[in-house]
């Protein structure tokens, strides 16, 4: 499932949600189906429906592994690529129920995290929604996934599961149905601390985790996941876009001002600044309507 921030953002329509007074996010009131469907039999042509997180495959990685593209900041850094591969292997070996291994982050990784966090904190007070500000306790030290998972379990009932890279959309969405957020553990290249072309721990923990600690928002995200169980490919693609225009790049009206709640905006200084300065033309969001094309490398969101 696409989940990353970018200095060049995505030229997609920014999902404009509205709310009045002090009411919670309108979009967070989606009802979550209580019962998860029983798994379908292994019959050719049928879509297998997982009955638990143990049946959700986190091994189908679509991209952004150790073999980085030529335009990736870490492409020519062999030590960085080896480091990425080693951390990804930790995720591949992890078993659900076991503690998530702790990473001893390098000074370069800690500096990249700290730089991104300090600059984002300059914008959060005026550009981030109040739910995010209420649940955002990040410090200069990179949090460990197990500690974050424990916090989420206590606040919203969610857990974190490590993953080696960008997951297949169906598997990522299926995980949401069981209140599991799949997160990478590696850090973006230190040469560009405010930029990542793929999901990394900065994006996951700064952008996604604070909002998942909000129970109303977490229920909305789970509803998207439940809708993906057993869905045909066309529906999976639609739900991927729904997730993109809300959980990744959604904004909300708060007391007459526009505030970010999407992780792709909240974890990118350039994207958040662009939104705060009115760079994106807002459009109402209808989850049932056909969604615009997602794009990742064509500049900040234009509308």
Automatic annotation (TrEMBL):
Q: Which UniProt keywords apply?
A: Iron, Metal-binding, Monooxygenase, Oxidoreductase
The record's section on InterPro entries has:
ArAA_hydroxylase (IPR001273), ArAA_hydroxylase_Fe/CU_BS (IPR018301), ArAA_hydroxylase_sf (IPR036951), Aro-AA_hydroxylase_C_sf (IPR036329), Aromatic-AA_hydroxylase_C (IPR019774)
Query: What cofactor is needed?
Result: Fe(2+)
MF terms (GO), sorted A to Z: iron ion binding; phenylalanine 4-monooxygenase activity
**Which stretches are tagged as biased composition: Polar residues?**
15-24
Q: Origin, by domain of life?
A: Eukaryota
Q: What class of enzyme is it?
A: oxidoreductase
Q: E.C. number, please?
A: 1.14.16.1
Domain spans labelled Biopterin-dependent aromatic amino acid hydroxylase family profile: 31-303
Start and end residues of each stretch annotated as Disordered: 1-24
Q: Which family does it belong to?
A: Belongs to the biopterin-dependent aromatic amino acid hydroxylase family.
Q: What is this protein called?
A: phenylalanine 4-monooxygenase
